[in-house]
Amino acid sequence: MLQSRRIYLPPLSLIGPGALKDLSEELKDLPYRRALFVTDKILVKIGVAQKVIDILDSSNIEMILFDNVQPNPTVKNVNNGLALLKENNCDVIITLGGGSPQDCGKAIGILATNGGEISDYDGVNKSTKASLPIIAINTTAGTASEVTINYVITDVVKHIKMVMVDKNCLVSIAVNDPELMLGKPASLTAATGMDALTHAIESYVTKGAFHWSDALALESIELIATSLEEAVHNGDNLEARSKMAWGQFIAGQSFSNAGLGFVHSLAHQLGGMYDMPHGVANAILLPHVERFNIPACTHKLKKVARAMGVEVNDKNDLEGANAAIQAIEKLSKAVGIPSGLRELGVNEEDFELMAQHALDDVCTGGNPRDVNVEDAMAIYKAAM
Q: Cα separation of 339 and 327, whole Å?
């Protein structure tokens, strides 16, 4: 029997070439006067931040720049941004960037209306009030933080990533303009693209999957499988960038409403312990976790293989599932993802602690197959 569901989406999403200019028109009708503009120093340095500010200038919103967001944003980043927001009495937050500025902006927005420390909100729906309004402008085809009810903040003292799943962090307007993604470095495109693929695959096989999320996930897998390699090797290809923008956008909607799995649980620990780029960690772990998951979702993984362009009509479910793993590994290699964790300085002596933390991660409950510490350690070892 079909169950009733709650679907969480931003009230407005603008997507496609030129979407940023559409945002400028939207802002003219909104009452905001002063924005905390959350981004990172790289986007400021290469001029993307100023380009966005110039386009939005006609909206007459004063921009207070906060560009001290680092990859894997920290508690300190959030607290510093919140202090600047309060000092300037900002009534809206505008985020620009990939997952890091988006997540940091969400955390600032939740603290602005709910108070306390960001660690208070680690877990599921811990806040009681909606975030300060957020307008999220995405520049990478990866995390989809601009459309999800998730955000992740790193506690550098404890070496852990806090994962917040909170309907109150949903942004007011999400913007995906692939023109902002043109020319991004190949390594960044590969990592964020494999992150998006992980979102799509995990949300398809997760215990929380349902008809709507399944449809989105399969479409996302096909879009990413047919466009990521081109986007990596020809970063100015607007069609490939547009397909990736759509792929990550709908993957985000899928996992935000269905959940994720153990790939993310394990990857979060690598980010917390080693400050590893999230997309790279996901890409390395994805085939190993899904190989572990085969007994619990064999038929679905066969459909993943088909969505990735593999001919599976003559294969049984197990053969098709293994073909999906091979297709993931092939794509990962083609876009230049490191072959294993050893290349990135991971030490086996950290496996047990990371495995224990991974079991407590909010994403673990959605994995299609139950896991224990020994399973987690074995997956880390296989990924070396």
A: 14
Stretch 320-329: mean pLDDT: 98
Distance CA 104, CA 113 (A): 15
What's the token pair of residue 195?
């992150």
Q: Two tokens at 131?
A: 């975030």
pLDDT of 1 > 60? The answer is no
| Sequence-ordered list of residues with C-beta below 8 angstroms from that of 178, at least 6 positions apart, any chain | 16, 17, 141, 238, 241, 242, 244, 245
Residue 38 is encoded by which pair of tokens? 């959350």
| Three-state SS sequence of the chain | CCCCCCCCCCCEEEECCCHHHHHHHHHCCCCCCEEEEECEHHHHHCCHHHHHHHHHHHHCCEEEEECECCCCCEHHHHHHHHHHHHHCCCCEEEEEECHHHHHHHHHHHHHHHHCCCHHHHCEECCCCCCCCCEEEEECCCCCCHHHCCEEEEEECCCCEEEEEECHHHCCCEEEECHHHCCCCCHHHHHHHHHHHHHHHHHHHHCCCCCHHHHHHHHHHHHHHHHHHHHHHHCCCCHHHHHHHHHHHHHHHHHHHHHCCCHHHHHHHHHHHHHCCCHHHHHHHHHHHHHHHHHHHHHHHHHHHHHHCCCCCCCCCHHHHHHHHHHHHHHHHHHCCCCCCHHHHCCCHHHHHHHHHHHHHCCCHHHCCCCCCHHHHHHHHHHCC
The count of C-alpha atoms lying within 13 angstroms of the C-alpha of 308, restricted to the half-sphere facing its C-beta, is 28
Number of Cβ within a 10 Å radius of residue 105: 35
Question: Which residues have C-beta within 8 Å of that of residue 1, sequence separation ≥ 6?
Answer: none
What is the CATH code of the structural domain delimited by 12-180?
3.40.50.1970
For the chain, the structural domain boundaries read 12-180, 186-382
Question: What pTM did the predictor assign?
Answer: 0.95
Q: Are the CB atoms for 376 and 359 separated by under 8 Å? A: yes
Which CATH architecture best describes the domain 186-382? Answer: Up-down Bundle (1.20)
C-alpha span between 309 and 247 (Å, rounded)? 15
Q: Which residue has the tokens 């679907």?
A: 7
CA atoms of 89 and 124, how far apart (whole Å): 29
Q: How confident is the model over 108-137, as pLDDT tens digits?
A: 999 999 999 999 999 999 999 999 999 999
